[in-house]
Amino acid sequence: MTPIRKLDDSRSNGARVADVRKRYLEFFEKRGHAVIPSAPIVPENDPTTLFTSSGMQPLVPYLLGEPHPEGTRLADSQMSFRAEDIEEVGDNRHTTFFEMLGNWSLGDYFKQEQLPWFFDYMTSTEEGLGLNPEHLYVTVFAGDEESGMAADSESVEIWKKLFGDKGIEAKFVELGTEERGNELGMQGGRIFSYGAKKNWWSRAGVPAKMPAGEIGGPDSEVFYDFGLPHDPKFGKECHPNCDCGRFIEIGNSVFMQYQKQEDSSFKELPKRNVDFGGGLERLAAAVRGDADIFMIDVFDAARAVLEERSGKQYGDADATRSFRIILDHMRAASFFISSGIRPGNSEQGYVLRRLIRRSIREADKLGIKDAVLAEVAEGFGAAYADAYPFVQAAAETIREELEKEEVQFRKTLVHGMKELEKMGGAIDAFMLFTTYGFPVELTEEIAKERGIALDMSAVQEKMETHKNLSREGAAQKFAGGLADHAEQTVRYHTAHHLLLKALQVVLGPDVHQRGSNITSERLRIDFSYGQKMTDEQKREVERIVNEKIAEAIPVVRTDMKKEEAEKLGAEHEFGATYPETVSVYSVGPLDSAFSIEFCGGPHVANTSELGEGGKHFKILKEEASSAGIRRIKAVLE
């Protein structure tokens, strides 16, 4: 392969993730973009999705037309987590936690600016990454016969010119489907077109599945060719969308330009948007010229711990997959715990527990029998100190939680073994996994040791069904989260603001929100308080909230400088960072407001709407959530 330029770095083996992130944000800032902070890894006030899973997710209201306080050009690096990818981790490119570099045009620029800018960022030696354009391949939308959507010929012409300016002839090849690509291969192409399954974006999927009113559009992806030999088990021929590992997607520009009509036709949006997402870790790997994401610098310290404790080297055939799973899972766990998530049996806590338990099993495979996860996780604090200092600040908590969970899971393994013994020759590996968290691989090994024939195909079928249901649930949650601005949910969101202030009035000013979950059926708030509330305190909180509902107070949104909002004492989300200009919602005018919070909305226009139909605010339950944290569930009825 042609050597590629490395970024300035004290390490000899490639660019640091911090360099790639910094250059990206500076590049787009120079082009008029406001750099906004990453949203929290757990979405605020959104019960329909467990995690922030893309850079676009926190910005959906603005892509749908709501004005953003920072303007029409935005850029960021967003912390993201995809639980559905847990089982995929182990190859050279899949991770659960990752950072998504993003830039957005909210009705501002479009294809003619976006594609040249990203190409320049990738290839420029002055402002960008200095990637060799010979290693870049792109895909575009081939059109969709079912919906009548035309092919994206405009992007094809833009890409031809960009490569041509670098002295590269960019042959266009129409593949249409991944299967066709597996049959025909590259054919000397540089630009490839695929159908709606690969190169169209909408929340509902392909054009035919989009409901009336839904927006969407074609996208154009960029792949980096690492020059690895093609693995024929992924198809006869290789092409950009092949999964053999030779090509890795490093960026995707989505052009939101259409809205579906009642008659199933599409019309151009009056304001077209650009939504770009680029994998930070994958871009860093491309700069290094090494397809293995787990060799980038943020994993160095953790990888060294595993090598020392196991006596094995990363790259050893029998160790690499276990290394990768532990490295990925402990990075995610570090961000989870430092964001306030604790191991548990539901929602985010369950996912964290699953990550930890899988890591313990993989450590066992490496021959590490003593506690090691806390030591592995320790290196991530320093690795992300520049962008996410809260991880390093929570080092002691991360260590304590991982050590505690590791001890607990060792006990779980003991319980699982007892149940396995009771089963005799009729071992139910799926039940052991779902009930006790007992790893299927461990059950399989013990069955082999005892000469028991375990029908692993049936087990894997059940596991695959279980995994698909989880993925479908995650997809439904994500889709629902984008659209759930239902009237009653909005009312509960406003009631949540009233409740938090009422708690501060009754329990003291040190009470602050530590989590929330709002649906159209009820609201839930986690808040800092060290003891159980008395019945009298709960009644007083209810009285205050209902009093503010009866007072028919206007709810006002104001965009202002962050410093001004802080001076006003506006409540803000625990652990979150905010841009220089923020939106605040106040119950009442700012100079005499009952409550003021940093918030993106939506809310009712007046508190009286919460009492429509004679409804009153009522606390259903007050209970402990975790140490020093209480939880209230409440309704309007």
Summarize the structure.
This protein is α+β, with helices and mostly antiparallel strands and 637 residues long. The protein has helices at 17-29, 60-63, 111-123, 153-165, 178-184, 196-199, 280-288, 300-310, 320-338, 347-365, 373-383, 389-393, 395-423, 429-436, 440-449, 456-483, 487-507, 535-550, 562-567; strands at residues 34-35, 73-81, 97-106, 136-141, 172-176, 191-194, 200-202, 215-225, 247-260, 266-279, 513-518, 523-528, 555-561, 581-587, 596-598, 617-626, 629-636.
CATH homology superfamily name of the largest domain: Bira Bifunctional Protein, Domain 2
- Class of the largest domain, according to the CATH hierarchy? Alpha Beta
Largest sheet, if any? 10 strands, mixed
Overall shape: globular
The CATH architecture designation of the largest domain is 2-Layer Sandwich
Low-pLDDT stretches are 1-14, 473-484
Number of helices: 19
CATH topology of the largest domain: BirA Bifunctional Protein, domain 2
Number of domains: 4
Average predicted local confidence, pLDDT: 87
In angstroms, what separates the terminal alpha carbons?
67 Å
Q: How many β-strand runs?
A: 17
Helical content band: 25-40%
Range of strand content: 15-25%
Structural class: alpha+beta
Instruction: Kindly provide the radius of gyration, computed on alpha-carbon positions and rounded to a whole number of angstroms.
Output: 26 Å
